[in-house]
Amino acid sequence: MSAQPSPAAPGAAGLDDKLDRGVLKIASVVVLGAIMAILDTTVVNVALQKLTIQFSTSFDTIQWVATGYMLALATVIPVTGWASDRFGTKRLYLLAIGTFLIGSMLAGLAWNVESLIIFRVVQGLGGGMLMPAGMTILTRTAGPQRIGRVMSVLGVPMLLGPICGPILGGWLVDAVSWRWIFYINVPIGVIAFVLALRLLPKDKASKSGRFDFAGLLMVSPGLAALIFGVSRIPSTGTVTAIEVWLPAVAGIVLLVSFVLRALRVADPLMDLGLFKNRTFSVSMITLSVFCMGFFGAMLLLPTYFTLVRGESALHAGLLLAPQGFGAMIMMPIAGRLFDKFAARRIVLPGLALIVVGMVPFTQVTSTTPYALLLSAAFVMGLGMGCTMMPITSAALQTLRSEDMAKASTTTSILQQTSGAIGSAIMSIVLAALLGSRFGVPTNQGQLAATAATLNPATQTAASALAAGAFATPFLIATVILAVCLVPAAFLPNKRFIPSPPPTGSDDAAAPVPVAPLH
Fold it and tell me: What is the largest CA-CA distance in the chain?
């Protein structure tokens, strides 16, 4: 793609790696977009209990507010690179902000759970483009020699989002309305749109290669149909119900068709040839299993605090902060360690920390001391800081420079879809257990548990029953994370030392956009 050089981007001979005023202006626009995208993935979880009551639904249904968003992110990530070349990065970024704004406003106006899920998907389509497009704009403007400083700027919302998001979401749910966890994006988005229109450098569209729209129409609907079919098992009580097997079979057919097609077309949505690289394959298996277990468990945690312990949404958000602090402390340390040690030596201890931190939640009751739970959450945060970045870096560092863009896309798709699958699994198990423990159908279990825990006469017994329902999915998540140690043991055991790039090449500085964590 041909972009007009910005005054802020010095030539290759420039030696100053400081971010000047021009770059900082563009960085402010990109960071605003990143704040919207990242906050919106973290504010919603603390509101799930409130939304369940508001729409008189069950947890296996309301979890689609999060799962639908994640699947939409995974859908649009591979489109971003093609669309950047086809339409120009500035136009794409404005489209992403506009789509996210429309989705946010509509989600705030939702009148039932179905409309909320649909509007969250619209949000996800915009949110999925914000980070990759913004990162491309900023790295091109700053120039290769300042990419390290650019990444540190973009890292701020990534580190603060998991801490500030749940707290902000909890406060809005308690003090204003659940609708404002979506409306809050409107003023931020309008400011970001105006600044992007005025400050982002103009660029020209260029010739873009063919995009695999057929593959896109197979993989995302296939995953959604498969997850939907499986999620109906608890409510129907059988796998032979048409609402279970029909979407599940349709999803499997679409996914198998996607794989078969990707093996024979020239430019598939996901380049399966990348998996011939042993390090990449092992890293992707490790990442997928990790995201299933970890993000599935994290979806349940705020609901445990609000439903079982009777905490407000704000207090639940505050109780999630230790996990975010742990990750914030460890991520920069893990980054420095990765430059000195092999990925396996960082990831295995990180996974062990997460498993140890998860153990108290597998035994959780309605009276488990908060000191134990918060300490365990902090330990999990430390472990997470040692896992995500090293796994992703290990996956990419042994690939050729021309494979980086496709590998980054594949990594982001697997991260989001695995997290969505894990969230759905844990939610399905929780919904089924709440229904059985309170003697009602699955789709009424959470409502029955909420009514019983709010009744002073039954509060103690109901809280104990509900806590037992949470312990089981936490145990499943712990087992999945423990299984993750197996592929992680095959990660590289020797530090990778890259060959120096050819003279005049920018390959070593090529940015690798990875989707934000959810």
Answer: 76
Q: What is the C-alpha separation between 182 and 41, in angstroms, rounded? A: 11
Give the count of beta carbons closer than 10 Å to the beta carbon of residue 504: 6
DSSP H or E run through 285: helix 278-303
Query: How many helices, marked H, and strands, marked E, lie in the chain?
Result: 22, 0
Angle subtended at Cα 91 by Cα 88 and Cα 97, rounded to the nearest 5 degrees: 135
Any bridge partners for residue 203, and if so which? Answer: 3
Return d(Cα 446, Cα 37) in angstroms, integer: 29
Structure tokens at 291: 């995201």
Spell out the per-residue pLDDT of the chain, length 518, in tens.
444 444 444 443 344 556 567 777 787 788 888 888 877 778 888 899 899 999 988 888 888 898 888 888 888 887 877 777 777 888 888 999 999 999 999 999 999 999 999 999 999 999 888 877 877 777 677 665 565 566 556 666 666 777 888 888 899 999 999 999 999 889 988 998 998 888 887 777 666 667 778 888 888 788 888 888 877 777 676 778 888 889 889 989 998 998 888 888 877 877 888 888 888 899 999 999 999 999 889 889 999 999 999 999 999 999 999 998 998 888 888 878 877 888 889 999 999 999 999 999 999 999 999 999 999 999 999 998 888 888 888 887 777 767 776 777 788 888 888 888 888 889 888 988 998 888 888 778 888 888 888 888 888 998 999 999 999 999 999 999 999 999 999 988 876 655 555 554 444 444 444 444 44
Residue 93 CB burial class (10 angstroms; 0-12, 13-18, ≥19): buried
Query: What predicted TM-score, i.e. pTM, was given to this entire model?
Result: 0.83
User: What is the crossing angle of helices 213-231 and 242-262, to 10°?
Assistant: 150
Pair of tokens at residue 470: 């949470």
